[in-house]
Amino acid sequence: MILVTGAAGMMGSHLLDVFSPDELYRTDIQASGHVAALDTRDAAAVMRLFERVQPEMALHLAAETDVDRCEREVDHAFRSNALGTLNVALACQRFGAEMVYVSTASVFDGAKPDPYTEFDAPAPISVYAKAKFEGEKIVQTLVPRHYIVRAGWMFGGKGKDKKFVAKIAAMCLGLEGGVREIRAVNDKFGSPTYAKDLLQNLRVLCRSGFYGLYHTVNAGWCSRYDVALEIARYLQSDIPIVAVSSATFPLSAPRPRSEAARSYKLELLGLNGMRPWQDALHEYLAEWLAFMPVPAARRSNGQELSIS
Fold it and tell me: What's the CA gap between 129 and 70, in Å, rounded?
């Protein structure tokens, strides 16, 4: 049995695409449907649930992912992303469970001109990244049988998606009225990561027994502007995509110039199943369209896709 935290989030929405329901005990901060309630910041509640469920593995997805909120609310960031991870790690230690911790490629300072590998030294510059990196160190210290996977610019979530890809796609389809042009940043770089692809590769990794730290990102790297262009191409949108600097959108938290990463250790072990980010994005957009309130949308190959 795999106990999952944060199962109602972006990655959690793809769990049943990869795992069967009877493999999982899904939890989130609030109960809903087949997802039980668990606040990972509550150490006693975490221990009680582990004692009852007796999982063989914990897939720790629960986190505060709002980077700007983390910068404004430092205590909240470390309580959620570091101490919440500590509670899960201690429970894994006590009950002999393996642990999977999903971290972030933003643990680097962004100065490297090439994509980061697992052998580069982290130097986080935002509170969010610092808290996630503390979580990595906690897992490495307390749980010998662990897998730490660093994701890049995550996309996914199906109908729950409120992130960059969904926003740009909605504008391209005219679902947000009055949009005459779409502005996207071209001076920050990263590696897009489809949540479903990450989970699929994670399942392979967890069966290998090669414990440790891994980057798990879709192949290639790009700017947000490049992602927006690819979305517009796929959706055959004629709304102009305009490149702007990051100074156009002032934010609370600093972002590294580059979060580009390479799934290097997976490559060396022959376990890298992460496809090019463009291919993953196209598949996700086709899936996302099924949840959108428009009568029809065209695929990039010119075929019609009927949606409700």
Answer: 9
Cα distance between residue 111 and residue 93, in whole Å: 36
Which range marks the domain in which residue 193 is found?
2-306
- Average pLDDT per run of 10 along the chain, which is 308 residues long? 94 92 93 93 97 97 96 97 98 97 97 97 97 98 98 89 89 83 95 97 96 98 97 93 93 94 98 97 92 54 29
222-223 and 189-190 beta bridge pairing: antiparallel
Alpha-carbon gap, residue 172 to 170, rounded angstroms: 5
- In this structure, the strands spanning 36-37 and 24-28 are parallel
| Bridge partners for 58 per DSSP | 3, 99
CATH number at residue 240: 3.40.50.720
- How many Å apart are CA 113 and CA 147, to the nearest integer? 27
Residue reference for tokens 């808290």:
131
Structural domain count, the chain: 1
Give the global pTM.
0.91
